[in-house]
Protein backbone atom coordinates (compact mmCIF):
# COMPACT_ATOMS: atom_id res chain seq x y z
CA UNK A 1 0.00 0.00 0.00
CA UNK A 2 1.24 3.50 -0.78
CA UNK A 3 1.60 6.03 2.01
CA UNK A 4 -0.47 9.09 1.22
CA UNK A 5 -2.06 12.08 2.83
CA UNK A 6 -5.49 11.74 4.37
CA UNK A 7 -8.25 11.01 1.89
CA UNK A 8 -9.77 14.35 2.82
CA UNK A 9 -6.83 16.09 1.17
CA UNK A 10 -8.16 14.80 -2.12
CA UNK A 11 -11.37 16.84 -1.53
CA UNK A 12 -13.49 13.73 -1.95
CA UNK A 13 -17.29 14.03 -1.79
CA UNK A 14 -18.80 13.22 1.60
CA UNK A 15 -19.59 9.57 2.16
CA UNK A 16 -23.05 9.70 3.73
CA UNK A 17 -24.56 6.61 5.30
CA UNK A 18 -26.63 6.02 2.15
CA UNK A 19 -23.61 6.51 -0.11
CA UNK A 20 -21.57 4.18 2.08
CA UNK A 21 -24.13 1.43 1.49
CA UNK A 22 -23.83 2.00 -2.26
CA UNK A 23 -20.03 1.87 -2.20
CA UNK A 24 -20.05 -1.28 -0.08
CA UNK A 25 -22.42 -2.84 -2.62
CA UNK A 26 -19.94 -1.98 -5.38
CA UNK A 27 -17.13 -3.56 -3.37
CA UNK A 28 -19.16 -6.70 -2.80
CA UNK A 29 -20.10 -7.05 -6.46
CA UNK A 30 -16.50 -6.58 -7.66
CA UNK A 31 -14.75 -8.48 -4.89
CA UNK A 32 -12.46 -5.66 -3.81
CA UNK A 33 -12.15 -3.77 -0.53
CA UNK A 34 -11.02 -0.17 -0.05
CA UNK A 35 -9.38 0.93 3.15
CA UNK A 36 -10.59 4.48 2.42
CA UNK A 37 -14.05 4.68 0.91
CA UNK A 38 -13.50 8.40 0.36
CA UNK A 39 -10.93 7.56 -2.29
CA UNK A 40 -13.34 5.23 -4.07
CA UNK A 41 -16.04 7.88 -3.89
CA UNK A 42 -13.68 10.41 -5.48
CA UNK A 43 -13.06 7.95 -8.32
CA UNK A 44 -16.79 8.10 -9.08
CA UNK A 45 -16.93 11.93 -8.98
CA UNK A 46 -17.27 13.28 -12.53
CA UNK A 47 -16.28 16.90 -13.11
CA UNK A 48 -19.92 17.83 -13.82
CA UNK A 49 -20.87 16.65 -10.32
CA UNK A 50 -18.00 18.51 -8.69
CA UNK A 51 -18.85 21.67 -10.66
CA UNK A 52 -22.50 21.63 -9.54
CA UNK A 53 -21.76 20.71 -5.92
CA UNK A 54 -22.17 23.29 -3.18
CA UNK A 55 -19.12 21.74 -1.48
CA UNK A 56 -15.49 22.32 -2.42
CA UNK A 57 -14.84 18.87 -3.84
CA UNK A 58 -12.52 17.43 -6.43
CA UNK A 59 -13.22 15.26 -9.47
CA UNK A 60 -11.82 11.96 -10.72
CA UNK A 61 -9.59 13.29 -13.50
CA UNK A 62 -6.27 12.98 -11.64
CA UNK A 63 -7.15 9.44 -10.60
CA UNK A 64 -8.08 8.71 -14.21
CA UNK A 65 -4.64 9.93 -15.30
CA UNK A 66 -2.96 7.59 -12.83
CA UNK A 67 -5.27 4.67 -13.58
CA UNK A 68 -4.58 4.96 -17.31
CA UNK A 69 -0.87 4.41 -16.66
CA UNK A 70 -1.42 1.59 -14.16
CA UNK A 71 -3.80 -0.16 -16.55
CA UNK A 72 -1.33 0.22 -19.41
CA UNK A 73 1.48 -1.29 -17.36
CA UNK A 74 -0.60 -4.26 -16.19
CA UNK A 75 -1.85 -5.06 -19.70
CA UNK A 76 1.61 -4.57 -21.23
CA UNK A 77 3.24 -6.87 -18.69
CA UNK A 78 0.60 -9.54 -19.23
CA UNK A 79 0.94 -9.41 -23.01
CA UNK A 80 4.76 -9.44 -22.81
CA UNK A 81 4.75 -12.46 -20.49
CA UNK A 82 2.02 -14.49 -22.17
CA UNK A 83 2.62 -13.82 -25.87
CA UNK A 84 6.37 -14.44 -26.27
CA UNK A 85 6.10 -15.06 -30.03
CA UNK A 86 4.39 -11.76 -30.88
CA UNK A 87 6.33 -8.79 -32.23
CA UNK A 88 6.36 -5.38 -30.57
CA UNK A 89 3.99 -4.13 -33.26
CA UNK A 90 1.53 -6.96 -32.62
CA UNK A 91 1.62 -6.37 -28.86
CA UNK A 92 1.03 -2.65 -29.33
CA UNK A 93 -1.95 -3.26 -31.62
CA UNK A 94 -3.50 -5.80 -29.22
CA UNK A 95 -3.02 -3.41 -26.32
CA UNK A 96 -4.61 -0.53 -28.24
CA UNK A 97 -7.77 -2.58 -28.76
CA UNK A 98 -7.84 -3.86 -25.18
CA UNK A 99 -7.53 -0.45 -23.52
CA UNK A 100 -9.71 1.39 -26.07
CA UNK A 101 -12.67 3.47 -24.98
CA UNK A 102 -15.09 0.89 -26.39
CA UNK A 103 -13.46 -1.95 -24.46
CA UNK A 104 -13.21 -0.05 -21.18
CA UNK A 105 -16.78 1.23 -21.42
CA UNK A 106 -17.99 -2.34 -21.98
CA UNK A 107 -16.09 -3.50 -18.89
CA UNK A 108 -17.46 -0.55 -16.91
CA UNK A 109 -21.02 -1.55 -17.79
CA UNK A 110 -20.29 -5.15 -16.76
CA UNK A 111 -19.07 -3.85 -13.40
CA UNK A 112 -22.19 -1.63 -13.27
CA UNK A 113 -20.15 1.55 -12.80
CA UNK A 114 -23.02 3.46 -14.42
CA UNK A 115 -25.05 2.81 -11.25
CA UNK A 116 -22.42 4.43 -9.02
CA UNK A 117 -20.87 7.30 -10.98
CA UNK A 118 -21.71 10.76 -9.62
CA UNK A 119 -22.64 13.19 -12.41
CA UNK A 120 -24.24 16.61 -12.58
CA UNK A 121 -27.89 17.18 -13.44
CA UNK A 122 -27.03 18.47 -16.90
CA UNK A 123 -25.01 15.35 -17.72
CA UNK A 124 -27.73 13.16 -16.26
CA UNK A 125 -30.31 14.83 -18.49
CA UNK A 126 -28.15 14.31 -21.60
CA UNK A 127 -27.64 10.61 -20.91
CA UNK A 128 -24.18 11.01 -19.40
CA UNK A 129 -24.54 7.91 -17.27
CA UNK A 130 -24.39 5.77 -20.42
CA UNK A 131 -21.70 7.75 -22.31
CA UNK A 132 -18.72 5.61 -23.23
CA UNK A 133 -16.16 8.31 -22.43
CA UNK A 134 -17.52 8.90 -18.93
CA UNK A 135 -17.69 5.18 -18.16
CA UNK A 136 -14.20 4.44 -19.53
CA UNK A 137 -12.70 7.38 -17.63
CA UNK A 138 -14.47 6.32 -14.44
CA UNK A 139 -13.07 2.79 -14.73
CA UNK A 140 -9.55 4.18 -15.08
CA UNK A 141 -10.16 6.40 -12.04
CA UNK A 142 -11.29 3.40 -9.97
CA UNK A 143 -8.12 1.56 -11.03
CA UNK A 144 -6.01 4.55 -10.01
CA UNK A 145 -7.80 4.82 -6.67
CA UNK A 146 -7.42 1.11 -5.94
CA UNK A 147 -3.72 1.27 -6.80
CA UNK A 148 -3.25 4.12 -4.31
CA UNK A 149 -5.36 2.42 -1.67
CA UNK A 150 -4.11 -1.17 -1.85
CA UNK A 151 -0.95 -1.25 -3.97
CA UNK A 152 0.09 -2.77 -7.27
CA UNK A 153 -0.35 -6.46 -6.41
CA UNK A 154 -4.03 -6.23 -5.45
CA UNK A 155 -4.73 -3.76 -8.26
CA UNK A 156 -3.17 -6.10 -10.81
CA UNK A 157 -5.36 -8.98 -9.61
CA UNK A 158 -8.46 -6.79 -9.92
CA UNK A 159 -7.56 -5.51 -13.39
CA UNK A 160 -6.63 -8.87 -14.89
CA UNK A 161 -9.88 -10.40 -13.71
CA UNK A 162 -11.80 -8.31 -16.24
CA UNK A 163 -9.06 -7.53 -18.77
CA UNK A 164 -7.97 -11.10 -19.58
CA UNK A 165 -11.39 -11.84 -21.18
CA UNK A 166 -10.99 -8.64 -23.23
CA UNK A 167 -7.51 -9.73 -24.31
CA UNK A 168 -8.84 -13.15 -25.31
CA UNK A 169 -11.62 -11.51 -27.32
CA UNK A 170 -9.01 -9.56 -29.28
CA UNK A 171 -6.84 -12.65 -29.80
CA UNK A 172 -9.90 -14.52 -31.12
CA UNK A 173 -10.57 -11.58 -33.47
CA UNK A 174 -14.05 -11.03 -32.02
CA UNK A 175 -13.51 -7.44 -30.86
CA UNK A 176 -14.79 -4.20 -32.30
CA UNK A 177 -12.04 -3.20 -34.70
CA UNK A 178 -10.44 0.22 -35.06
CA UNK A 179 -11.41 0.81 -38.68
CA UNK A 180 -9.72 4.22 -38.85
CA UNK A 181 -6.37 2.54 -38.18
CA UNK A 182 -7.10 -0.38 -40.50
CA UNK A 183 -8.20 1.97 -43.29
CA UNK A 184 -5.17 4.23 -42.89
CA UNK A 185 -2.77 1.26 -43.03
CA UNK A 186 -4.49 -0.08 -46.15
CA UNK A 187 -4.60 3.29 -47.93
CA UNK A 188 -0.97 4.04 -47.10
CA UNK A 189 0.11 0.66 -48.43
CA UNK A 190 -1.97 0.68 -51.64
CA UNK A 191 -2.32 4.37 -52.56
CA UNK A 192 0.61 5.99 -50.69
CA UNK A 193 -1.68 8.62 -49.23
CA UNK A 194 -3.90 9.23 -46.17
CA UNK A 195 -7.68 9.22 -45.64
CA UNK A 196 -9.20 12.65 -44.99
CA UNK A 197 -12.36 13.06 -42.89
CA UNK A 198 -14.93 15.80 -43.18
CA UNK A 199 -18.19 16.74 -41.50
CA UNK A 200 -21.22 16.33 -43.77
CA UNK A 201 -23.87 17.49 -41.32
CA UNK A 202 -24.94 17.47 -37.68
CA UNK A 203 -28.47 17.51 -36.31
CA UNK A 204 -30.27 17.62 -32.99
CA UNK A 205 -30.08 19.75 -29.83
CA UNK A 206 -26.78 20.38 -28.06
CA UNK A 207 -27.34 17.61 -25.52
CA UNK A 208 -28.23 15.00 -28.14
CA UNK A 209 -26.49 15.72 -31.43
CA UNK A 210 -25.95 13.27 -34.29
CA UNK A 211 -22.97 13.67 -36.63
CA UNK A 212 -22.41 12.45 -40.21
CA UNK A 213 -18.79 12.22 -41.36
CA UNK A 214 -17.39 11.18 -44.74
CA UNK A 215 -13.91 10.00 -45.59
CA UNK A 216 -12.16 10.97 -48.81
CA UNK A 217 -9.47 8.79 -50.37
CA UNK A 218 -7.83 10.40 -53.37
CA UNK A 219 -10.82 11.84 -55.26
CA UNK A 220 -13.52 9.47 -53.97
CA UNK A 221 -15.73 9.95 -50.92
CA UNK A 222 -17.12 7.15 -48.76
CA UNK A 223 -19.96 7.24 -46.26
CA UNK A 224 -21.25 9.14 -44.59
CA UNK A 225 -20.94 7.36 -41.25
CA UNK A 226 -23.31 8.29 -38.44
CA UNK A 227 -22.49 8.68 -34.74
CA UNK A 228 -23.31 10.51 -31.52
CA UNK A 229 -19.92 12.23 -31.73
CA UNK A 230 -17.41 12.93 -34.50
CA UNK A 231 -15.09 10.12 -33.41
CA UNK A 232 -17.84 7.50 -33.65
CA UNK A 233 -19.05 8.88 -36.99
CA UNK A 234 -15.50 8.78 -38.37
CA UNK A 235 -15.14 5.15 -37.30
CA UNK A 236 -18.35 4.25 -39.10
CA UNK A 237 -17.29 6.14 -42.23
CA UNK A 238 -13.92 4.35 -42.13
CA UNK A 239 -15.72 1.01 -41.80
CA UNK A 240 -17.79 1.74 -44.92
CA UNK A 241 -14.67 2.67 -46.89
CA UNK A 242 -12.66 -0.30 -45.60
CA UNK A 243 -15.47 -2.70 -46.45
CA UNK A 244 -15.78 -1.33 -49.99
CA UNK A 245 -12.02 -1.29 -50.64
CA UNK A 246 -11.13 -4.68 -49.15
CA UNK A 247 -14.35 -6.70 -49.01
CA UNK A 248 -13.98 -6.96 -45.25
CA UNK A 249 -16.86 -6.82 -42.79
CA UNK A 250 -17.80 -4.08 -40.33
CA UNK A 251 -17.80 -6.18 -37.15
Commentary on this structure:
- There is one protein chain.
- By secondary structure, this protein is mainly alpha-helical.
- It folds into 2 domains: 7-171, Ribonuclease iii, N-terminal Endonuclease Domain, Chain A, CATH 1.10.1520.10; 179-246, Double Stranded RNA Binding Domain, CATH 3.30.160.
- It is 57% helix and 10% strand.
- It has 11 helices and 3 strands.
- The chain has helices spanning 17-30, 37-43, 47-52, 61-82, 88-98, 101-110, 121-125, 132-150, 152-171, 179-191, 230-246, and strands at 196-203, 210-217, 220-227.
- Strands 1-2-3 form a 3-stranded antiparallel β-sheet.
- A hairpin with a 2-residue loop joins strand 2 and strand 3 (220-227).
Note poorly predicted spans.
none
Rounded average pLDDT = 90
Beta percentage is 5-15%
| String of helices and strands | HHHHHHHHHHEEEH
Structure at a glance:
With 251 residues, this protein is mainly α. It contains eleven helices and three strands. The protein has helices spanning 17-30, 37-43, 47-52, 61-82, 88-98, 101-110, 121-125, 132-150, 152-171, 179-191, 230-246; strands spanning 196-203, 210-217, 220-227.
Keywords:
251 residues, mainly alpha, Ribonuclease iii, N-terminal Endonuclease Domain, Chain A, Double Stranded RNA Binding Domain, three-stranded antiparallel beta sheet, 57% helix
Amino acid sequence: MLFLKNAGDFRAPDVTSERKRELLLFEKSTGIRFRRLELLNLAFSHRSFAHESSQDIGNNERLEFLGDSVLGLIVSEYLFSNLPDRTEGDLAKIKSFVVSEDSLASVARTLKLDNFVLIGKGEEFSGGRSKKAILADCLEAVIGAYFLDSGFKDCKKFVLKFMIPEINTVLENKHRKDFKTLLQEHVQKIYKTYPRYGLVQKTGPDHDKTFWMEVKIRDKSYGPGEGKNKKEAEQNAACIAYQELTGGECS
